[in-house]
Write a structure and sequence with these properties.
alpha/beta, FAD/NAD(P)-binding domain, D-Amino Acid Oxidase, Chain A, domain 2, 2 domains, 8-stranded mixed sheet, 11 helices, binds flavin-adenine dinucleotide, nucleotide-binding, Sarcosine oxidase subunit beta, oxidoreductase, FAD-dep_OxRdtase, cytoplasm
């Protein structure tokens, strides 16, 4: 693998940039691997990366039915934060956020992490109390957040309408080191680093069946042939229920479409991320100048990867009442992804009823921020067979045992 650096750039310039190799190998499937991971989204790739880097397990294949990063990882609005309420959530999201701080250096790939600050607006008394409680919890958890009043909100976001036509801004839960990263780059960076360590990334390879013997996984059937494995990781977000069905168990997951849209590019007008959960919308500005706008999820289960049209109108209504300055802007494009929602809005990183088969899913509307931490915890689980401290609480069996990790306030609109 060519190491990317300013010197490499200068050397390549002498050669008119003809000599750059491919970022990752386009591998053909072998008949057997120690570990197979289904799904080359951020979580699957990060799992493979930390299996190789932290545990020395490199005989690994990551199978992807489409192109890598083409699922939710390449469709999200890239918000990164760790201001969750419950201890288990704060631990894994903060681990993830802290890994993002040095991810570009660790992967030798610029993921454009931008800790520009994130505000979650409080627009009702209830929300204000809930966010203040979260700030106290975060203090105990070692997560740096603070409660700020309306004037400070206005200072940070001059274009905001504090008084609001329906809901005034009463303050905000502020995470100064929250922010964004470039979503494709996170997938590409992990893919490149995996490939360099010998992991095979196999695109256009859909898993259509899971083979088992005596209660243990033995391999997978794919559109590119059968592949044997000792351990299998299912990391397929909105398709987790489908893959679990192939393995012979059910997951407490619902799949729904969630959508986002971007505006035409404009000059810099917003240098923080703002989430407004009461009116239901959130917004940041990309490096290209587009406003990146997140909408709501459909109220019914589906696999359309598009989202219902009425959400576009609802989301823009919410943002226009908070930021009247954007009312005349044109929207450039809209898209959707299929997210995997659990009842308590917390993820699953777990062993399963099938021996040797592990599952990572349930990140719902907010798993981009979790990619490094989730991959770290899932690799730990798959390497050792039992969960480490980061994953211990996120077993799929918690729903049977009544040990919910309720993040529905932190993740109501989410992201
Ligand atoms: C519109 C939108 C906005 C969002 N905004 C944010 C945000 O601001 N911040 C945040 O933290 N999170 C956000 N999210 C959530 C985040 O995108 C996801 O939680 C995260 O990307 C999930 O990553 P993943 O790797 O688990 O799944 P994915 O990236 O979806 O990867 C799963 C992969 O599995 C593949 N696959 C499925 N079935 C098979 C099969 N049978 N065989 C082989 N491969 C298969 C798929 O093709 C896919 O590439 C948003 C999501 C959406 C849709």
């Amino acid at each position: 693998m060519n190491r990317y650096s300013v010197f490499a750039l200068a050397r390549a310039a002498l050669d008119r940039h003809q000599g750059w190799g491919r970022a990752w190998r386009d591998a053909a499937p072998k008949t057997r691997y120690d570990v197979v991971i289904v799904g080359a989204g951020g979580h699957g790739l990060a799992t493979a990366h930390y299996l190789a880097r932290n545990h020395g397990i490199t005989n690994v294949a990551v199978l992807e039915k489409g192109w890598l990063g083409g699922g939710n990882t390449g469709r999200n609005t890239t918000i990164i934060r760790s201001n969750y309420l419950q201890d288990a959530s704060a631990a894994i999201y903060e681990k993830s956020r802290s890994l993002y701080e040095t991810l570009s250096q660790d992967l030798n790939y610029n993921v454009m992490f931008s800790p520009r600050g994130l505000l979650m607006l409080a627009q009702t008394e209830h929300e204000m109390k809930a966010y203040r409680r979260t700030v106290h919890a975060n203090l105990l958890q070692g997560v740096q957040t603070e409660w700020i009043g309306p004037q400070r909100v206005k200072d940070l976001v001059p274009m905001i309408r504090i008084e609001g036509p329906r809901y005034p801004v009463l303050g905000a839960l502020y995470q100064p080191r929250g922010g964004t990263a470039r979503h494709d780059a996170v997938a590409w960076g992990y893919a490149r680093a995996c490939s360099a360590m010998g992991v095979d990334i196999i695109q256009n390879c859909e898993v259509t069946g899971i083979d088992q013997r005596d209660g243990r996984v033995t391999g997978v059937r794919t559109t590119r042939g059968d592949i044997g494995c000792d351990r299998l990781g299912l990391v397929v977000a909105g398709h987790s229920g489908v893959l679990a069905g192939m393995a012979g168990f059910r997951l407490p997951i619902e799949s729904v479409a969630l959508q986002a849209l971007v505006s035409e590019p404009v000059k810099p007008m917003l240098d923080v991320v703002v989430m407004a959960n009461t009116v239901h919308g959130y917004i940041s500005q990309s490096d290209k100048g587009e406003l990146v706008i997140g909408g709501g999820s459909d109220g019914f289960n589906n696999y359309t990867q598009r989202g219902s049209f009425h959400h576009i109108e609802e989301t823009l209504r919410a943002l226009i009442e908070t930021f009247p300055a954007i009312s005349r802007m044109k929207m450039l494009r809209q898209w959707g992804g299929i997210v995997d929602m659990t009842g308590d809005r917390s993820p699953i990183i777990s062993t399963t009823p099938l021996g040797g088969c592990f599952v990572n899913c349930g990140w719902g509307t907010g798993g981009f921020k979790a990619i490094p931490g989730s991959g770290w915890a899932m690799a730990d689980l798959m390497a050792r067979g039992t969960p480490g401290p980061l994953a211990a609480d996120f077993s799929m069996f918690r729903f049977r045992e009544g040990r919910f990790i309720d993040e529905s306030v932190a993740a109501g609109v989410a992201h």
